[in-house]
Amino acid sequence: MTAPAVPVTGMDEHLVFRALFSAYPDGLLLVDGTGIIVLANPAAGSLLGYQAGELVGVGVDALVPDSVRPRHASYRDAYAHAPRARPMGTQMELVARRRDGSDVMVEIALSPLQSHGLPFVVVAIRGIGAYPRVKQALQRARYSEHLAQLGRLAVDARDPKQLLQEVPAIAAQALEVELSMVLLLESDGLEVRVAGGVGLLPGEAVGARLANRVDTPQGFVLAQGVPIRVEDYASETRFVVPPAYLEAGLVSALAVPLSDQGRTIGALTVRSRQPQRFGDDEQHFLESLANLLCTSLQRAQTEEALNHAQRLETVGQLTGGIAHDFNNLLTVIQGNLQVLEELPAMAGDRVGQQLVSAALRASRRGAELTGKLLAFSRRQVLQPSAVDVHALLHSLADMLRRTLDQRIRIVVDVAPDCPAVQADPGQLESALLNVAINARDAMLDGGHLHFCATAVDSLPAGLESGRFVCIAVSDDGSGMPEAVKERAFEPFFTTKQAGRGTGLGLSTVYGFATQSQGLVSLESEPGQGTTIRLYLPQPPDEPDQAEFAASGAGEVPPGLKVLMVEDDPEVRSVAQRFLEGLGCAARACSSAEQALELLTPTADFELLLTDIALGAGMRGTELARIAHQRLPRMAVVLMSGFSAELLEADRESPAGWELLPKPYSRGELAAAIVRALGREPA
């Protein structure tokens, strides 16, 4: 039964109204025309941080934040001239200042009493900071501010290690959790490394490695590749929860993967001692944080790769120029030694023959050295063809077993369906031999040398498209510290003792892989060995129809009429002796302009042999084009000690022209002439 209503008229109305004023759940203030509070209920004092009765006599301006106080004074004056009722909820972004100086979000209603003959305004104040929608808005604003903080840090920071340490701290602070960490997948895929964290458990120190098994918390996240929430570790069944988690009182967790070009490379994880701590907003924030971290890491990696490439390119230009000049010198040295060796006066001089042979061997080693310089600078002329990786690696392994330390065990593991690679066979074998020799020097007490080859399913960074084969060479030697890894591909850089190496081994591998339209990568840790991976393209499906096959093997025709153009007098002298020794009728010129005077329509030259770089005058390629116009049936051989010129000529000249790198022997010159004569006219 409902209790009978008690008529207010039968009671002290003043007492009832004071009771309602005191019991009302919202803050109520009675303010006079000058803005002074003459009455305040307990709810107002509690909301604004005042004790009972302390608000009486306080001006309402004291409850307004400093930033808006001037505007509030003018608004109050305007309201006093035209008071009107204003209900709550018409303005949402109002802030009141509490006694301790802090702010509280409020809604305010105004009820003027002038129409009742009273010079007051009733101000009703309601705190809305605890409203779910307001709390959510404040939380999202806090998350956005922390993301902006990381964004500013990412712009200023150049060291990825700083970001890897700051991100867990930002995540823990924003989400108000106890533990946060960044995990990065190791190159072998078997472990993850703690790259940064706060509140870490024993065994999770920065730098520690954790198993990447699917039955572990970290392994499960990386295997799924999607955000994972844990509501309660005690009831978790998807993976095995480490006892240390429960001992530390951890209850809930949230983890999001870190991705690099579609590959999961790690995870960002937060954990809490509160149940069901993480919802959609928290997940969205953590994903945004992870994406920003990945973008920053990619930028740092790209900048480092660009700087490294620029350094290598600068050194490559320098070494290419040195090799050009050195090749001209070697052409003179080798040519004169070969002529000297064949002089009749040397036929019976055994000691003289030995000395000449030793000098020839030394000059050939010099030519090999310049070849390595050009290989690093990606300026040597390659002759790529389809190479059977299985046959090459087994042949190389057989040779290494006979020559390397017998304590080194060599294993070859080639996938049964491994495709061939499109590369220069000799240069590929030389590159692998350089890697094997470095591995030998890193295993002074013996060890394992492992050759592995397989088709590439997913391309590494640096290769955008195409079909590739990965040839990996691994050892379990001493490994490399970070400072050595950063310079491993630089020419002349070596950690070996003086006289034990030129420092051109890995730089040659780098240049060969790059010029072969491939890639080389290095992974190494001190005490953990080294792995070099060569990524080389597979052969094209169709044979290159632009290639002209040389005619059958033969000799230089006796009496061949040759126009030879060379600006270096000593090289010109060597070339003329070679041509005469081959039975050619050679006419030598020192410039293209001099040669053009001889290239009349009635000239009977059958071959043009010209250097590409001819001093300040016309280049040899331009001379060859004019010569072809005047004598279309004349064959062309272009020579140069600067292989970049040969590469350019190879791209821009007709396929019928032959290219001859310096230094060359008389036999190599003869072979080039035979090939040029056997080809179709350009």
Give a structural overview.
The chain contains 18 helices and 23 strands. With 682 residues, the protein is α+β, with helices and mostly antiparallel strands. The protein has four domains: 8-130, PAS domain (Beta-Lactamase, 2-Layer Sandwich); 135-304, GAF domain (Beta-Lactamase), CATH 3.30.450; 385-537, Heat Shock Protein 90 (2-Layer Sandwich); 561-678, Rossmann fold (3-Layer(aba) Sandwich), CATH 3.40.50. It has a six-stranded antiparallel beta sheet, sandwiched between helices. Helix 14 links the parallel strand 19 and strand 20 (585-589). The protein starts with 12 loop residues before the first helix and ends with a helix. Mean pLDDT is 80; it is low at 497-504 and 542-553.
Count of alpha and pi helical runs: 18
Q: State the CATH class of the largest domain.
A: Alpha Beta
Approximate strand percentage: 15-25%
Q: Which superfamily, in CATH terms, is the homologous superfamily of the largest domain?
A: GAF domain
Question: What would you say about this model in short?
Answer:
The protein has 682 residues and is of the alpha+beta class.
